[in-house]
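Action item from last meeting closed. Structure (307 res):
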């Protein structure tokens, strides 16, 4: 199937930003071996597909991915006004690029949150983040301290909105009781269905808050040769192939459409430097699976029929 389409956009929370439903994930940017001009071309191709939201984090690419994006932005300054920029903070990696980090750990202190957000702005060569997320839940998280840091960043015009990533419902509700949050970025795929059953997507739907989904294709495990897949992946792959043939689309498009169909209105992050993969993701926003098709995939993943 060949459809000329553009990623739809939605407000991710009642008072949240408007993002494209397909989000350009750039955590592997450094491994794509693109020149700065090639990065500009890639960004422009994504824009042409309606993909206007970029997902980053301070630690991505061993603390280099944001700077690589910034080099492209410097070459094409008009891109600053055409994208929405998301970043994350709160993890300190042991890295040659951060020699002061003796032990890998979480840091959600106000000082680190503010310093990290400011460094992300410098690295990406932009003036404002549309969304800043706490990357992982921190056992030493002080909700009042984080809320204070968020308010300071917002009042200074450096960050518009705030959210979290990989938080449980209770962790989300703790922080949301102190400061407005607009999303929880979580893992969901046919190989990782926990968010469907642990209340994460239920909470998102109750709050009318769209989750952001990472590893939506299960890290590519479903698209390896069958001989390299385990029994569960083979079951899922067989159903993906059948439904893809029925709809005349790729198996990746079907796997993404399965996520996008959830009523919490998920946004899906991509992770590929191939524009064809971005096209397949955008196409998934146009696909509506029948309930039988959707549950056939659920059953293949669960290894059982619904009760």
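Sequence:
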């Amino acid at each position: 199937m060949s459809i000329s389409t553009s990623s739809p956009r939605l407000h991710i929370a009642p008072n949240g930003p408007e993002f494209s439903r397909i989000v350009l994930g750039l955590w592997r940017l450094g491994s794509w071996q693109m020149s700065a001009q090639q990065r500009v071309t890639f960004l422009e191709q994504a824009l042409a597909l309606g993909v206007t939201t970029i997902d980053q984090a301070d630690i991505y690419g061993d603390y280099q991915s944001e700077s690589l994006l910034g080099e492209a932005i410097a070459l094409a300054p008009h891109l600053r006004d055409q994208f929405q920029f998301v970043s994350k903070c709160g993890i300190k990696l042991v890295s040659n690029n951060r020699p002061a980090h003796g032990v890998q750990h979480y840091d959600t202190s106000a000082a680190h949150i503010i310093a990290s957000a400011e460094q992300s702005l410098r690295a990406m060569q932009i003036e404002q983040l549309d969304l800043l997320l706490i990357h992982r839940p921190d056992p030493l998280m002080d909700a009042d301290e984080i809320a204070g840091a968020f308010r300071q960043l917002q009042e200074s015009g450096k960050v518009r909105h705030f959210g979290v990533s990989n938080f449980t419902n209770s962790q989300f509700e703790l922080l949301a009781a102190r400061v407005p949050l607009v999303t929880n970025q979580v893992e969901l795929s046919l190989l990782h269905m926990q968010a469907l059953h642990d209340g994460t997507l239920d909470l998102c739907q109750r709050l009318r808050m769209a989750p952001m989904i990472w590893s939506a294709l299960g890290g590519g495990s479903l698209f390896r040769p069958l001989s390299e897949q385990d029994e569960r992946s083979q079951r899922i792959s067989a159903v993906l192939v059948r439904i893809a043939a029925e709809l005349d689309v790729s198996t990746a498009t079907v796997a993404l459409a399965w996520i996008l169909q959830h009523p919490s209105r998920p946004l899906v992050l991509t992770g590929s430097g191939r524009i064809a993969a971005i096209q397949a993701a955008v196409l998934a926003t146009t696909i509506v699976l029948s309930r039988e098709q959707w549950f056939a995939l659920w059953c293949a993943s669960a290894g059982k029929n619904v009760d």
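Note appended to the action item: Residues 235 and 300 are 5 Å apart (CA to CA).
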